[in-house]
Write a structure and sequence with these properties.
By secondary structure, the chain is α+β, with helices and mostly antiparallel strands. Among the domains are: 2-82, Alpha-Beta Plaits, CATH 3.30.70.100; 225-312, Calcium-transporting ATPase, cytoplasmic transduction domain A (Distorted Sandwich); 431-555, Calcium-transporting ATPase, cytoplasmic domain N, CATH 3.40.1110.10. The protein has a seven-stranded mixed sheet, with helices on both faces. The two termini are 59 Å apart.
Length: 753
């Protein structure tokens, strides 16, 4: 061992902060993974070995180099791959495959040999004449078939059992090998082969299912490029992406993945939606627009200026949230661990007591009691029960991430599943990107039709929210549009136009103030509108006001549909929280038909309202903007509502906000409520699947024990039931990867709408 440690020190990876990281595949149930982690921590000199079972990530800190860790994982039937700083397989390092395909072939051969042994025994097949005389009487053809099945099916369990026993650890593999040995002592070769083969098949099934969900996470890391084309002067040089610093210029060719977060400084392109954004839609990006790492350049070559290092990109921050979520315990998982920690030793004690005491006390033959003890050891296997929660939560967390919903843990999904009351910040339903003309105040001598037609003519063709709202109002009121003689913009951003030798300007209040417009005649109206929280625009002639336009924020696309779905999903109470009594908020509350509109409350009053809901037996989710998000209509309320004592804290925002998720339980990647029904429905399905999994396993064990007490249980049937329990857990959990049918007949995740 000392020699191995000394050799491993020279093999340690360089440049790792906080330890060397590995990707580990082949992990079966959490109990077996925990035993592997304990074995690593028990090694001489090991400072820290942390295994994230759900994400399949291992972090090592100690005197053991990558090659030694890879060998230790191989002895446990696992495959470890060394990772670089970006979480991708380290380039230039060959990793020995552990032959997972070969194991499948071994299992297939074991099944064939078992079938051959059954056929030989049923048909009374014997050795050809002459050969049977050379062999001892016990070596029959069927026993040779079963022995070969034991050899091929039990290769992995026997290797892990020996390795664990050498390290003074009793694992499930060791228990199964002991059961097989006991069956051989009783002359039950067929049952020994079935127990070992089905146990190995169960482990492969568990590992395949968990690796299937982990693969999505691993592929996210591998999506990021390892190198970037950084501009040095006017030449682009390929450098490791870790060397790109904020402020550096990078060239991204068509079809390439953006290596860092940044802004386009040259060129225009079509950029695909990010994998974790919940949408595959593309958008046009021009100079000054922001692009995220992990999205694809689908148009022309562009130059971007990096805003942050690659490892701190919004995409990798979101991947980090998913990694931590997969490693956190799911709803009820700790209770399952406590149950298995108590029940498994009890079953083992009962089995040993039957074998050791029953023949002595009852003066009965040893054989039947040894056989019963072996059956109890098979039923006592905790793998299926330990897998019942993580198999479901990992599948659900990955499905959520694909739809643009990041949950902090499986336990957070469990609490979200209980939600039957929702309070949301008003900015979750309102957007300033689309405005609506609420009221027009023309000056004396002007009519509403006149000022609308004049303003619409001035703003026609301008791509902004205020201009679009004015034109839409002119169309709806049938006021028409005045043809302007010339149009442009002043240095303050106001639109200016000439109509019949008269000069007009249109713009927001702040920009027209800088232009020097005389506001005294309309100051009282403006002050009243500002208290109402509306957007104010003015039409002026020269420096004299002609009309005041009061505009309000409109509902975000999908807000009304999302709240309608929540009501159909039996959410009993929906409340909207507004910091100020604005006209936009009041209009939104009326249009959304919320049960309660909490307006202008102090933080302690809002908190008391939420507590009242909880005292009524409601499980409350609070939906608010992500901390540090872009300033907007509801930004002030974000800080206030964030302190409310809700059961589930849900935030929403762009993928960039994933690094600032803070204490929130769930993040909706987007700018509104549209993904909340999907998250709630999937959380409820996950809780239902977990309950079904636990019931499946417990029912199987109760049936097995009942049959044992009734004298109808056999060892091979116990093995089949345990395998069936594992298969049911996995197949039931895989349903969480399917598309979700939302209320109102729309199917799929938010991406499909």
């Amino acid at each position: 061992m000392a020699h191995a440690v000394k050799r491993a020190v020279h093999d340690k990876g360089e440049g790792y902060v906080g330890g060397v990281r590995f990707r580990v595949s082949g992990l079966t149930c959490p109990e077996c993974a925990a035993q592997f982690q304990r074995g690593l921590n028990d090694l001489d000199g090991m400072k820290r070995a942390e295994l994230n079972y759900g994400a399949g990530l291992l972090e090592i800190e100690g005197p053991y180099g990558p090659s030694e860790i890879i060998r230790l994982a191989g002895r446990a039937g696992l495959q470890a791959v060394l990772l670089d700083r970006m979480g991708k397989p380290r380039a230039g390092r060959k990793v020995r495959s552990e032959g997972f395909a070969g194991r499948a072939v071994f299992l297939l051969l074991a099944v064939l040999f078992i079938a051959g042994g059954i056929a030989a025994e049923a048909m009374g097949m014997t050795w050809p004449a002459g050969i049977d005389e050379l062999l001892p009487a016990p070596i029959t053809l069927e026993r040779v078939m079963f022995a070969l099945a034991l050899l091929y099916g039990g290769f992995d369990p026997l290797k892990r059992a020996f390795h664990g026993f050498w390290r003074r650890r009793i694992e499930a593999s060791f228990t199964v090998v002991c059961v097989a040995a006991g069956a051989l002592l009783l002359g039950r070769w067929f049952e020994a082969a079935v127990v070992v083969t089905l146990f190995a098949a169960s482990e492969r099934l568990q590992a395949s299912h968990m690796d299937r969900t982990r693969r999505f996470l691993w592929q996210l890391r591998e999506r990021m490029p390892s190198r970037a084309a950084r501009l040095i002067g006017e030449q682009a040089a390929e450098v490791p992406v870790e060397e790109v610093a904020p402020g550096d210029l990078c060239v991204v060719a068509p079809g390439e993945v953006f290596p860092v977060d940044g802004r386009i400084v040259q060129g225009t392109s079509t950029v695909s939606g990010n994998v974790l954004g919940g949408t595959g839609l593309s958008s046009e990006k021009k100079e000054g627009d922001r692009v995220e790492a992990g999205s694809v350049n689908g148009g022309e070559t562009v130059h971007i200026q990096a805003e942050r290092p690659a490892e701190a990109s919004s995409f990798l921050s979101a991947v980090g949230v998913l990694e931590k979520a997969l490693g956190a315990p799911g709803p009820g998982e700790k209770n399952i661990f406590r149950l298995t920690a108590i029940a498994t030793p009890v079953f083992l004690f009962v089995a040993v007591a039957l074998v050791m005491l029953a023949p002595v006390v009852l003066e009965a033959p040893l054989g039947p009691w040894l056989y019963a003890g072996l059956i109890i050891l098979v039923v006592a296997q905790p793998c299926a029960l330990a897998l019942s929660v993580p198999a479901a939560t990992s599948a659900a967390l990955v499905s959520c991430a694909k739809a643009g919903v990041l949950a902090k843990s499986g336990e957070a999904l469990g609490r979200l599943a209980k939600v039957n009351a929702v309070a949301f910040d008003s900015c979750a339903a309102l957007t300033r990107e689309r405005l609506s003309v609420f009221e027009v105040f023309p000056m004396p001598g002007w009519s509403q039709q006149q000022v609308l037609s004049l303003a619409a003519g001035i703003v026609w063709g301008r791509d902004d929210a205020i201009g679009a709202a004015v034109v839409q109002q002119a169309i709806e009121s049938e006021s028409g549009m005045v043809m302007v003689d010339s149009a442009g913009a002043d240095e303050f951003g106001n639109l200016v136009a000439q109509v019949k030798d008269r000069n007009y300007a249109f713009g927001e209040l702040s920009s027209l103030q800088r232009r020097g417009v005389a506001l005294t005649p309309v100051l009282a109206t403006i002050n009243a509108l500002e208290r109402d929280g509306v957007v104010i625009a003015l039409l002026v002639e020269g420096k004299e006001p002609v009309a005041i336009f009061a505009l309000v924020e409109t509902l975000k696309e999908g807000s009304r549909r999302a709240l309608g779905r929540l009501k159909r999903m039996r959410v009993e109470r929906i409340a909207m929280v507004s910091e100020q009594a604005t006209r936009a908020a009041a209009l939104a509350a009326a249009l959304l038909e919320v049960d309660e509109h909490l307006v202008g409350l102090r933080p302690d009053q809002s908190a008391e309202k939420v507590k009242d809901l909880k005292r009524e037996g409601k499980c409350v989710a609070m939906v608010r903007p992500a901390p540090g998000g872009p300033a907007g209509a509801g930004a002030p309320a974000a800080g206030r509502t964030g302190s409310l004592p809700a059961d589930v804290d849900v935030v929403y925002g762009s993928l960039e906000a994933a690094s600032r998720i803070g204490r929130a339980d769930v993040m909706l990647v987007g700018q509104g409520l549209d993904k909340l029904p999907y998250a709630l429905l999937l959380a409820r399905r996950t809780s239902r699947v977990i309950r079904q999994n636990v019931v499946f396993v417990l029912v199987v064990k109760v049936v097995a024990l009942s049959l044992l007490v009734g004298g109808a249980m056999t060892l091979w049937l116990a093995a089949i039931l345990e395998f069936a329990a594992t298969a049911l857990v996995i197949l039931n959990s895989m349903r969480l990867g399917r598309k979700v049918r939302l209320p109102s007949g729309s199917t799929g995740s938010p991406r499909a709408e």
